[in-house]
Amino acid sequence: MKILNRYLNLEVAIPIFWIMVGLIGIFTFFDFIQEMNDLGKGSYNLLSVFSYVVLSIPGHVYEIVPIAVLIGSMYAMGQLSENSEFTVIRSSGFSIKRIALTLSFTGLFFTLFTFAVGDLVTPVTEKKAQEIKITAKDAIVTQEFKSGLWIKDNNSFINVEHVLPDSSLSEIHIYEFDKNFHLRTITNAKKGSFKDSEWRLDDINQTIFDQEKISTNSLKSANWKSLIKPEMMNVLLVSPEKMSSMSLIHFIKYLKNNKQKVTRYEVALWEKLIYPLASIAMVIFAIPFGFFQERSGSKNVKIFLGILIGIFYQIMNSSFRYIGLLNDWQPLSCAIIPTFIFFSVGVMMIYKTEHQ
Question: For 345, phi and psi rounded to 5 degrees?
């Protein structure tokens, strides 16, 4: 039985691997074509384009693994059925439920692989890729408004005109209020860098508002303690969906402490935890198609169906995310419903096929 278990898992895992390689190649090719449009802007040369494209690969791997698992599993099911191997396996005492349990280990492997790539590799490579592109093009990271980035930190409002790729800041304006929201100080600094758990500001001009007078003060440099950390600036470089789970947790905590809306980041956190489980759901979903194959169709049809269903899953996933954000649904519901639907349909089809 151990030999048969190993054989089934290998027969499914190998097609999944090659389909994943093929999909990565397609995405990488289109990335390269797209980046060629920016070639020559600043110092964005061919080496920078190549570096950016290569560093973007882990992000694509994270996104396509469930689709590759679905297509690869459906192909493998068709192959096993076409060669009458399923007939032999079932005649040896293996039920469809037992086959599903055996192949769930392949789904578990790709679940762990997806989580590792998405949580440990992608956040690092995506940030580095954006840094290379922005630095080479002599650009700034982002500006949420024409005046720059605005952040709330307890009773202070911070305006940062420019966030640089290394998470250092330039043209910083800090407006500090008292508990009654009366303006106390305005601090302007040319530059800011994070060292030893606090910000070091340079070329500072400060205006202090007292009840009776207004005074000004100039400093060459000073330390500034704030809840804002450089890691929080990663949200400007990396989309929430590609941040690590720990970065999302810290950022959500920061937003909650400042009484700001966290729904988008909570949805991204739950997706980070739920999305890898789609690999198990896809394996379960694909298994009954191997037994439908015994009666009609070819493995090429199953590959085509796998592609269509995989695209439908991604569309459903994105739709639930955006609809949930618009309607303020529970973040867990937005993340889990598409995967739960596919898993439930797969289980029902296995049950129906088993009892026919």
Answer: -65, -40
Structural domains of the chain, count: 2
Contacts 24+ apart (CB under 8 A), 312-319: 313/66, 313/67, 313/70, 313/278, 313/282, 313/338, 313/342, 314/63, 314/67, 316/341, 317/271, 317/275
Residues 128 and 160 in one domain: no
To which residue do tokens 């905590």 refer? 253
pLDDT in tens, 65-108: 999 999 999 888 888 877 878 778 887 778 888 888 999 999 99
Which helix or strand (DSSP H or E) is residue 157 part of? strand 156-163
DSSP state of 54: H
Residue-range definition of the domain harbouring residue 310: 2-137+266-354
Verify that 9 and 117 share a domain, yes or no. Answer: yes
pTM strictly above 0.90: no
Residue 164 is given by DSSP the state -
Contact 123, 244 (CB under 8 A): yes
Is residue 331 in a domain? yes
Sequence-separated (6 or more) residues with CB below 8 Å from residue 234: 123, 127, 167, 243, 247
Judge if 102 and 204 occupy the same domain: no
Other C-beta atoms closer than 10 Å to the C-beta of 307 total: 16
The dihedrals phi and psi of 150, each to the nearest 5 degrees, come to -115, 130
Helical segments of the chain, H only: 2-35, 46-82, 85-91, 96-116, 122-136, 234-237, 245-257, 263-274, 278-292, 299-327, 331-354
Instruction: Write out pLDDT tens, residues 189-218.
Output: 988 888 877 888 999 999 988 877 888 888
Q: Are residues 17 and 129 in the same domain?
A: yes
- Residue 145: count of CB within 10 angstroms of its CB: 8
pLDDT greater at residue 299 or residue 212 = 212
State how far the Cα of 203 lies from the Cα of 351, in Å rounded to an integer: 71
